[in-house]
Design brief:
Radius of gyration: 12 Å
Mean pLDDT: 96
Low-confidence stretches: none
Number of helices: 3
Length: about 70
């Protein structure tokens, strides 16, 4: 196990699905344009479904809000 810390301070394995989801959220936030971010989220909805899309949006919100504190 390679432990890493999530934005919420939880320690998880770097090869876990949860860590992949946090990395994806950071990736989306780094996209240069709002439209790019919206298209990415829409594609997740189409490919993986509404639940996966909502999880991604929730993780993005957490990272965004923590960056503003």
């Amino acid at each position: 196990m390679n432990p890493v810390k999530t934005p919420l301070g939880e320690i998880i394995d770097s090869s876990s699905e949860e860590w992949r989801a946090w990395c994806e959220a950071r990736h989306v936030l780094k996209l240069p344009k709002l439209n790019d971010r919206q298209l990415y989220i829409e594609s997740i909805t189409k490919v993986r479904g509404q639940k996966a899309s909502q999880t991604l949006q929730d993780n993005i919100s957490v990272i965004w809000n923590l960056s503003k504190s």
